[in-house]
DNA sequence: CAGAAATTTTACCATTTGGTAAATCCACGA
DNA sequence: TCGTGGATTTACCAAATGGTAAAATTTCTG
């Protein structure tokens, strides 16, 4: 059993754990936690069900491993918001990074969205441990910028909520966007310009 | 079997169908389609499982009935956007109505969100039949307003996407908002002011 | 009230699904 | 090359779950 022990993982272990997590990300993001089955994950990973249970303690272990591993990637764009940069440019760059992530990592976005939508039963501790401190820190940073008259008076918390909502919308509600968006135009380019205008105006003195 | 026939439903039928749909809305919105069980719905409705299958053809029938019945309510705020009203006021009023709905009907919001998030497997026809024509109509209306110089140049489609995203965020991602939002302040009032500012600036000439 | 119709319960069933035990296979270092 | 530990498969199991048949009960109607 590769779990529990602190031995360095073998080549086979690394390969298979990666394959399982990648398959699981696919299946969980498309069907949700309850809708996903170990058989689906096993099939997509090219392994047998007992074999994936050789690498993970169970369905919940896979899900939780995914969530924790992806948390860092997910928070990176916010971490990169630089206190020494120009406030307006920093926030607008953050919007674009988040939008790029929605395009490049839609599975990750939907995985998190599904978990939050169901009340974050398995992720609440992670939210409090990882997300909340970062969120508070960046809210305080924006508030400082406001106090220094470098930004107009606005609500840092709800500004960040709106950035999350508008950018992740393109990944999480892709099915709806696809139905409504006219074919032939690049939704990402349009979204990018639209969000730049929306938040650009909001941040203007 | 009350289904199929066109007889007018009895008092008992109306009462029990309502109880089932209300219970189902609760359970589906909290656990998603796959995560919800007929036993849970039955328990919450105060009926036995075979009894709810006397009123509905199955789990999918309940889910589909809910989605269709709620579609009208869901689209009402957009329908109410008046072509003869003041453009800026109409759109800002729409934002507030959507935000109020996220507060007053969070179960409905999460039900739709879950369905869309999973690729809208049971709702795609409804989206094309009900949502798309309305969406196109209102996009055209906003475009007319822009052409008439009553609104600044903006992207109608993505403006509506952003309104949906920011307002529904408070219902769909409530678990996250609850973790991050400071206790003791009314998130709805703050959100209302924030969104009024965000979209108000966007719509200013 | 009597009978019919509608409603509800009891007792099931088949499938799916997360998970396990044990046998088997295989890679790799001595 | 051989043996050992890691990796994989085979054959299961118990619980959960969507659904059904038919009996029993309640409600409605004349």
Q: Can you walk me through this structure?
A:
The structure is a homodimer of 205-residue chains. Helix content of chain A is 76%, strand content 0%. The first copy, chain A, has 205 residues and is mainly alpha-helical. In chain A, helix 5 (87-104) packs antiparallel against helix 10 and helix 6 packs across helix 8 (156-172). The longest helix of chain A has 25 residues, at 11-35. Chain A is globular, with a radius of gyration of 20 Å. At the A-B interface, helix 1, helix 6, helix 7, helix 8 and helix 9 of A face helix 1, helix 6, helix 7, helix 8 and helix 9 of B. Chain A binds a DNA duplex (30 and 30 nucleotides) through helix 1 and helix 3.
User: Helix content range of the residues of chain A, please?
Assistant: over 70%
User: Count of DSSP helices of chain A?
Assistant: 10
Largest interface: A-B, 53 and 53 residues
- What sort of overall outline of chain A do the alpha carbons produce when their principal axes are compared? globular
Kindly provide the radius of gyration of chain A, computed on alpha-carbon positions and rounded to a whole number of angstroms.
Answer: 20 Å
Mean pLDDT of chain A: 95
SSE string of chain A? HHHHHHHHHH
Main beta sheet strand tally, sense and closure of chain A: none
Query: What is the strand content of chain A?
Result: under 5%
Low-confidence parts of chain A lasting 5 or more residues at pLDDT below 50? Answer: none
**What is the oligomer described by this structure?**
homodimer
């Amino acid at each position: 059993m590769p779990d529990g022990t602190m031995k360095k993982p073998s080549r086979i272990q690394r390969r298979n754990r990666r394959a399982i997590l990648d398959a699981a990300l696919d299946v969980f993001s498309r069907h949700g936690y309850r809708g996903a089955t170990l058989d689906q994950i096993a099939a997509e990973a090219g392994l047998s069900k007992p074999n994936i249970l050789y690498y993970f303690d169970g369905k919940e272990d896979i899900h939780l491993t995914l969530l924790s591993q992806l948390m860092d990637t997910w928070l990176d764009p916010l971490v990169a918001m630089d206190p020494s940069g120009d406030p307006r440019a920093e926030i607008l760059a953050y919007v674009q990074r988040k939008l790029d992530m929605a395009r490049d990592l839609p599975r990750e976005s939907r995985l998190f969205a599904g978990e939050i939508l169901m009340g974050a039963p398995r992720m609440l501790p992670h939210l409090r441990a990882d997300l909340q401190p970062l969120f508070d820190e960046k809210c305080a940073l924006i508030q400082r910028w406001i106090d220094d008259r470098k930004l107009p008076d606005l609500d840092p918390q709800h500004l960040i909520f709106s950035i999350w909502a508008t950018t992740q919308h393109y990944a999480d509600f892709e099915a709806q966007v696809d139905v409504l968006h006219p074919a032939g135009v690049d939704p990402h380019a349009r979204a990018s310009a639209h969000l730049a205008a929306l938040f650009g105006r909001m941040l203007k003195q």
